[in-house]
Write a structure and sequence with these properties.
Length: 437
């Protein structure tokens, strides 16, 4: 039934199967490599695509695609019968919950377009539940666009009302040349969303074109289908107490509400190895690309995992193995930008070679493995004044060292600067397992 598609994929597979790939590093990168965005209280910052990892992921994807078509007729049926679905599958390959939603026909075809100045924007489909909407869209250009980017992205209810309090996540592509581009936009709400009619607004800019698009679309159904498990169970990892308050399972993702004991000696920065496990050993891991968590307070947050909603296992466990954590009196980096000195940092002393190049601070991060996280959450000067930042970057110098760059927008500040940590390569480990059902 799918001979044509499978033969095409076989040819692509043969083209790439002799490429030497660092499998261990790729596997780790898939799990954490895209987790560059900071965890924020409301809005996850837009992501910039990494061309290098896109190429690697594409090579891996060819192998995964072939397997999916062989073992999942439902998935293959979606690939061949719904316009644009094959492009969508590429975007959700690393999220078992979204793939399961597609397999169970939970994706809604939209296929609504708007065209201006030779640029056509199409909303291909959406996957939605009462807590979130994932929008898949494609941009096609009749002529090649140069220096292409999205300047603005927003979702608005058609009735003029405001969206519920939410977080959003989307790619900000910067393409030298572009003819077609497919991506996704995620909106997740703090309260139940009951809106069904929306407008997706996009501003597209290139060397040739600058246009504003507003595309109306409607959700065909919005079932209230969440499963709530009240737990209030406490585990201890290297002396640090963590209470799992509640687990809520939605079709799009699983929300785990956790609370750290205020008397803990360490600040928990990230739940690095944190997953769901069923009775057969199948794993649903953390969301790695998009909104990964919602910080409720210093000691409480919601962590998002891939959804097992459509699997509905008989037994389900929450497993914690590894956390990023620093001593509470070491949850910041203290620097003097004038003297270009690091005055204080957490144990491990992973940061060296502070340099100030115009408005950018640069550190060398000395870890055995690449650390694909944003280091800094916020910056304050010696008087407690907030120092604004515009970006954080990671690159590798000629010697293979990882260099972290932080661009500071504020010009007038008093040294030393206190850089409050969002993530840091210090860990505590354990083997906690909590039964959910």
């Amino acid at each position: 039934m799918f001979e044509k598609e499978e033969n095409e994929l076989k040819k692509l597979k043969e083209k790439y199967e002799n490429i030497g790939l660092p499998i261990d590093e790729i596997d780790e990168a898939i799990q954490i490599g895209f987790q560059k965005a900071k965890e924020t209280k409301l809005v996850t910052k837009p992501r910039r695509k990494s061309k290098i990892w896109s190429i690697v992921a594409a090579a891996i994807l060819l192998l995964g695609f072939l397997t999916s078509i062989r073992v999942s007729p439902t998935f293959a049926d979606y690939l061949t019968n719904i316009p644009g679905m094959e492009k969508i599958v590429k975007l959700i390959r690393d999220d078992k919950g979204l793939i399961s939603a597609v397999e169970n026909k939970y994706a809604q075809e939209i296929n609504i377009s708007q065209e201006k100045s030779g640029i056509k924007v199409t909303i291909d489909s959406v996957i939605a539940d009462e807590q979130g909407i994932v929008i898949f869209y494609t941009i096609d250009a009749k002529e090649t666009q140069h220096n292409f980017t999205l300047k603005e992205v927003s979702l608005k209810p058609s009735n003029g009302e405001e969206l519920p309090e939410h977080s959003s996540s989307f790619d900000l592509p910067v393409e030298d040349e572009l003819n077609t581009y497919t991506s996704k936009i995620e909106y997740f709400f703090q309260k139940t969303n009951e809106q069904k009619d929306f407008n997706l607004d996009l501003k597209i800019k290139s060397k040739e074109v600058s246009e504003q698009f507003s595309i109306p679309f409607s959700l065909k159904n919005l079932e209230k289908t969440k499963q709530i498990y009240e737990l209030n169970k406490t585990v201890t990892i290297e002396g640090q107490k963590i209470t799992i308050k509640k687990v809520t399972v939605y079709p799009l993702r699983v929300a785990v509400q956790v609370k750290m004991d205020p008397n803990n000696t360490k600040k928990i920065l990230d739940f690095t190895d944190f997953e769901l496990l069923d009775q057969n050993g199948e794993v649903w891991s953390k969301i790695t690309n998009g909104t990964t968590a919602n910080i409720l307070s210093d000691n409480e947050r919601i962590i998002y995992l891939q959804s097992n909603f459509f699997k509905d296992p008989k037994e389900l466990y929450l497993v914690i193995h590894k956390l990023q954590a620093v001593d509470k009196d070491e949850e910041y980096i203290l620097v003097d930008t004038e003297k270009q000195q690091i005055l204080k940092q957490p144990k491990g002393n992973y940061l060296t070679d502070l340099k100030k190049e115009e408005s950018e601070l640069k550190f060398t991060l000395n870890t055995k493995k690449e650390f694909h996280y944003s280091l800094v959450e916020s910056i304050f000067d010696a008087n407690g004044k907030v120092v604004q930042t515009s970006s954080e970057s990671q690159e590798y110098d000629d010697g293979g060292k990882q260099v972290v760059g932080i661009t500071i927008s504020t010009k007038d500040y008093v040294n030393p600067l206190k850089l409050k940590l969002a993530f840091y390569p210090e860990y505590i480990q354990g083997d906690a397992k909590i039964r959910i059902k």
